[in-house]
Design brief:
The protein is built from 11 helices and 6 strands. A 6-stranded parallel beta sheet has the order 2-1-3-4-5-6, with helices on both faces. The mean pLDDT is about 95. Helix 4 packs parallel to helix 6. Helices cover about 45% and strands about 15% of the residues. Strand 1, helix 1 and strand 2 form a beta-alpha-beta unit. The longest helix is centred in the middle third of the chain and has 25 residues. It has one domain: Rossmann fold, CATH 3.40.50.720. By secondary structure, it is an alpha/beta fold. The structure holds nicotinamide-adenine-dinucleotide (NAD).
């Protein structure tokens, strides 16, 4: 069902790898709500070819490759997107994360710092690079909305989340800091959505993910928020209904973040 929330809006969606990706689901919802979109992912991810299916389902949306750590790639992406739209952009989804230390099985206490630099660059400073590119090119309309996806490991310890916890803290900080400057300059708003654990390629890379996701469900009064639910929340954040929300970390987790314990977990502990 469409509510036409994004009629006339134009956006760039980063990070749709396959059908499980939160960005994939968000692209479909944005299209259904009337938006025009441009899809982007790292050139290596585009080679899988999956994204072309999504592009077709989104009214033949252009797919433009960009390694989000590369300023030239980003400049090219924004210039081509504006050319395609015939004007400026109204929303951006940053749905990107990658941990080299997790991927290579390094324990947090034995971190490889070169890998860590790459992790922070891809997963956190890339948001700064995206915003900086848009700023330099004056690519965003007033009241544009930028959303990046994060996880509660930025605030609380989840040991197996490893260096990504630090990356998400940095991502949330960039959101506030750049959000301030972009708000003052152009009324652009920047927020993070802190999503429940979700079965995607990036999510399942976390060690012990099955235990992790089941625990979160048991600790959330509403259960875990799905990728589909997250896509709906992104649509609302891109719409004009949330115009005055900026520099926030918005928990989208069925109540997990403010729950001390649930009856379900107490009963499990008593067994
Ligand atoms: N899945 C979860 O449990 C969960 C929970 C909270 C937050 N998140 C966040 O949601 C976002 C999306 O992840 P997802 O779960 O949909 O997984 P996903 O694996 O489908 O998406 C991650 C994306 O990042 C892209 N990417 C990696 N390196 C890149 C680079 N250098 N340049 C451009 N793109 C690059 C990948 O190609 C991929 O499309 C991430 O920020 C993730 O941390 C996920």
């Amino acid at each position: 069902m469409s509510n036409n929330l994004l009629i006339g809006k134009k956006g760039i969606i980063f990070g749709a790898l396959d059908e499980k990706s939160i960005a994939w689901k968000t692209a479909l919802k944005c299209h259904a709500e009337g938006a025009q979109i441009v899809l982007s992912n790292a050139p290596v991810a585009l080679r899988m070819g999956e994204i072309n299916k999504l592009a077709a389902a989104c009214g033949d949306a252009p797919v433009i490759g960009a390694d989000v750590t590369n300023m030239e790639d980003l400049k090219n992406l924004f210039e081509k997107a504006m050319e395609h739209f015939g004007g400026k952009i109204d929303f951006i989804l940053h749905s990107i994360g990658m941990s080299v230390n997790v991927r290579k099985g390094k324990h947090y206490t034995e971190m490889n710092y070169e890998w860590n630099q790459k992790t922070l660059d891809i997963s956190a400073m890339s948001l700064h690079k995206v915003l900086r590119t848009a700023w330099d090119l004056d690519a965003l309309n007033e009241w544009s909305s930028v959303v990046a996806l994060t996880y509660i490991a930025a605030q609380r310890v989840f040991p197996d989340y490893n260096e990504m916890a630090d990356a998400k803290s940095l991502l949330e900080s960039v959101t506030r800091s750049f959000g301030y400057h972009y708000g003052v300059k152009k009324k652009v708003r920047v927020n993070t959505i802190s999503q429940s654990p979700t079965r995607t390629t990036a999510g399942s890379g976390v060690k012990g993910f099955d235990g992790f996701i089941n625990y979160a469900a048991a600790m959330s009064p509403l259960g875990n928020a799905s990728g589909e639910d997250c896509a709906n929340y992104c649509v609302v954040m891109f719409s004009d209904l949330t115009k005055m929300v900026t520099m926030q970390n918005l928990f989208h987790d069925g109540g997990f973040s403010f729950t001390g314990v649930t009856q379900e977990v107490v009963e499990k502990m008593e067994k």
